[in-house]
Amino acid sequence: MTNFLDRHGLSVDSRLVSFVEDKALPGTGVDTDEFWGDFASLLGKFAPENAALLAKREDLQARIDGWHRAHEGQAHDAQAYQAFLREIGYLVAEPAPFQIGTANVDPEIATMAGPQLVVPALNARFALNAANARWGSLYDAFYGTDALDAPPAKPGGYDAARGAAVIARAKAFLDDAVPLASGSWADWQGGQLLLADPSQWAGSKPGAILLKHNGLHIELVIDPDSAIGKSDPAGIADVLLEAALTTIIDLEDSVAAVDGEDKTLGYTNWLGLMRGDLTESFAKGGQTVTRAMEPDREWTSPSGEAFTLHGRSVMFVRNVGHLMTTPMIRLPDGSEAPEGLCDAVITSLCALHDLKGLGSRTNSRAGSIYIVKPKQHGPEECGFTDRLFDAVEDMLGLARHTIKVGVMDEERRTSANLAACIAAVKDRIVFINTGFLDRTGDEIHTSMRAGPMIPKGEMKTSDWIAAYEDRNVRIGLACGLSGKAQIGKGMWAMPDLMKAMLDAKIGHPKSGANTAWVPSPTAATLHALHYHMVDVFARQKDIAGEAVPSLDRLLAIPVATGRNWSEAEVARELDNNCQGILGYVVRWIDQGVGCSKVPDIDDVGLMEDRATLRISSQALANWLLHGVCTAEQVDAALARMAVKVDAQNAGDPLYEKLTPEGIAYQAARALIFEGVTQPSGYTEPLLHKYRLAKKAAA
């Protein structure tokens, strides 16, 4: 039974109280009683506003549903539709041209271009791996993945032939990025280093040379006595790339956090990262391995001056959106507190340890707190976040705009009003990012009554998606984000297919985005190659001022007009979606795993989080609503795919088989059959309901 304690009229989970009072507050200079009093006042002020914003979402959705009902069977009138959206306040007037005023931003966010990791806050090991992925071995990344065009490594220890191919590929990269004054890196014998551009030699230390290209560092590890270095003419044992410049520690889509126990674990790990003292021990190869955060890296410049490079990825924390409430804090009237308000206060409190230098590592040398705020609908909700962060700064004694915000451009109302959303947080914004899955889920839900949607696989090549991606970059550049903030792109979801990633993901820096998400530290190292191939900031200058794709294209509804699917096509789409839903939900509900590599219907491992679930469940809910499929067909697909998911998880000793009576199966079915009525098509309310039931049953 959870124990609750009274704090200024709030009923607070005792586990959270202990964390705040024993770990998060000490050393910050924030008085305990004042903290709880200010927290209670903040909740009292902002909780009603939060509820009003959610009510407005529902009102707008009801009006849009009504529009589509009234025009059922008629050809879509894009001009009349857009006029209607303006009339109801869904679309707002474009702001006058402006430039963001964000200051005190770390260079990894403002003036550098490179990969970004996203990891669940509840998994300390993953979080540490991500924080330490600032520097990655190019040799390891090529040797251990399919990214290298060479025969795979033979089993039974180091494969010298594979290793030789790795070294050749890495030195070809060096020839492109930091060419020698003459000859190839493959022929360099060591000794005097003569580069074609001497300014690219950034520093040295015993056993290493530091190079620089496109703002990113490259470290040559020199160790002629090592197994690799002894066979190299220059004694090069490895090539390390500056890789994951930034990481998002996630309390949202990649975690299953439903109560005070889960949330306190996430906050504890975030505090450990902000203090630099987070560690995690685990068994590996018959031994216990303890992982900790890497130190900074000391160098000497060519002119003899000592300098330091950051040893870790600069970390954001992703709070939850405005929708959910949490049972860990109850307001004086007995209702649950909005979870996003709690996240804003407590994650900022934890970050005070970084700003005040209370730990052993530094995250932000610029003195900022970086919070990603997802799932905001339009500029009014962004303005609410801005005022919320004002209030958190006041309660923690922080200067105005110390808390920076990343705005996820993943809801239709935000995409359509992006410039106004940026304007609403213009003095604290450090990040905009597109997300195909959530954005498509919201696209389907917003236009749920317009008709049956095209299959989700076809969404990727639809015109509205192309307009969405291009508008995001061009609006961001027009608002002055270049050199001050990140313009980001979405995740490569297939961590085992690195060759395909190398072929495809160069499109992100070419688009003008100075960061993009990757699923692993290895992927970050390989994706870093793209930022050596493309000078993103030069690319941004090239496309700055280009016309923003029209709102007409963005608002084109992806309805499958006049489409007649065969039974086989419908069955394939049902199986594909049901398999993905079951495969993800069974881990979320039964094991509390919010993000993992889940095999798809073709047994390709995909890094899945709640965004995948949203698009799949909304796609099926839409087809059910419009009679493309029947309830019986969906249930049959669920039954077929339960057998497949069971087989895919046969090697997991913690796995519980899917049965129609099981809580996970019931959750998966509810996500589909109740999808039309879920707020904005979000999966959180049902997932939390069934996960709490599972925890109670256990």
The average pLDDT is: 97
- Level-1 CATH class name of the largest domain: Alpha Beta
- Total count of domains: 3
Structural class: alpha/beta
Describe the main β-sheet briefly: 8 strands, parallel, barrel
Quaternary state reads single chain
Main location: cytoplasm
Binding site for Mg(2+): 410, 438
Subcellular location: Cytoplasm
Protein name: Malate synthase G
Topology:
Layout: E1 4-7, E2 10-13, H1 14-24, H2 32-70, H3 78-87, H4 107-110, E3 116-120, H5 124-131, E4 135-137, H6 138-143, H7 160-177, E5 201-205, E6 208-213, E7 216-222, E8 236-242, E9 246-250, H8 260-275, E10 280-284, E11 287-291, E12 297-300, E13 306-309, E14 314-318, E15 325-330, E16 336-338, H9 339-355, E17 369-373, H10 378-396, E18 403-409, H11 412-415, H12 418-424, E19 429-434, H13 436-446, H14 456-459, H15 463-478, E20 486-489, H16 498-504, H17 507-510, E21 515-518, H18 521-533, H19 536-543, H20 551-554, H21 567-591, E22 596-599, E23 605-608, H22 610-625, H23 631-648, H24 663-673, H25 684-697
Parallel strand pairs: 3-9, 3-21, 9-14, 14-17, 17-18, 18-19, 19-20, 20-21
Antiparallel strand pairs: 1-2, 2-15, 4-8, 5-6, 6-7, 7-8, 10-11, 12-13, 15-16, 22-23
